[in-house]
Amino acid sequence: MKRYTLYLFSLIAFSLTACQQEVALEEDSCCTKPLAADALPDGTSSLAIPTSALTDMSLYQLESDWHNERGEELKLREFQGKVRLVAMIYTHCGYACPRIVADLKRIEMGLEQYKQDDIGIVLVTMDPARDTPERLFEFAKSNNLDPQRWTLLTSEQDNIRELAALLNMKYKVELDGEISHSNIISVLNVNGEIIHQAEGLGVEPDETVNAIKSLLLRI
């Protein structure tokens, strides 16, 4: 599995290179990354891929075990079949993470015409020691996150760091227990491939909303 993770990470890192260069030039910019030669300018593929076919670029190939806010054990591949927004937070965060949740809600508002079966939102904690499933459940409840659309995940620290690396997320636990981290919202297609990322806080949601709409038109 470690060999596969390194291979998957190298593929994703290669696909992100051009995008990262653009972000370096413009802070808090959005980036859209083609994953194949047939990719369209909006980051989506011109070819329909069956939801049963997981490519080497799929995050759902990871075999790590996770728990949601209801304490249910699951694999990432169980998210297959629906377009997903994915972000990493921790519930004791007092500044950036609430803004990430707010940004996700703004994106969600731009997709109000779509059903819950079309789009899912996944929050992954960076603080598994404190963010137990019970804590995540209370966080979801206090932030009015629709359980039919939002899923909150925790796992072992190694699994979280592995997923963070593949999402191009960087974070560091400080001595006081706070976590310094980048702020990235990722869009995954139905097969778990990253097709769009928005980096920064308070980024206008239009690019992300349009990327998701383009994906949904091809399902």
Based on the model shown, name its key terms.
single chain; 219 residues; alpha+beta; Glutaredoxin; eight-stranded mixed sheet; two-stranded antiparallel sheet; 5 helices; 10 strands; 32% helix; globular
Provide a concise account of the structure shown.
It is built from five helices and ten strands; from the N terminus they run H-E-E-E-E-H-E-H-E-H-E-E-E-E-H.
SSE diagram, text form:
Layout: H1 2-25, E1 30-32, E2 66-68, E3 73-74, E4 83-89, H2 96-109, E5 119-125, H3 133-142, E6 150-154, H4 157-166, E7 171-173, E8 179-181, E9 184-188, E10 194-199, H5 206-217
Parallel strand pairs: 4-5, 5-6
Antiparallel strand pairs: 1-10, 2-3, 2-6, 4-9, 7-8, 9-10
Give an overview in words:
The protein is built from five helices and ten strands, in the order αββββαβαβαββββα. The protein has 219 residues and is an alpha+beta fold. The protein has one domain (2-217): Glutaredoxin (3-Layer(aba) Sandwich), CATH 3.40.30. It has an eight-stranded mixed beta sheet with strand order 1-10-9-4-5-6-2-3, with helices on both faces. A two-stranded antiparallel sheet has the order 7-8. The protein starts with a helix and ends with a helix. The model is unreliable at 16-50 (pLDDT under 50).
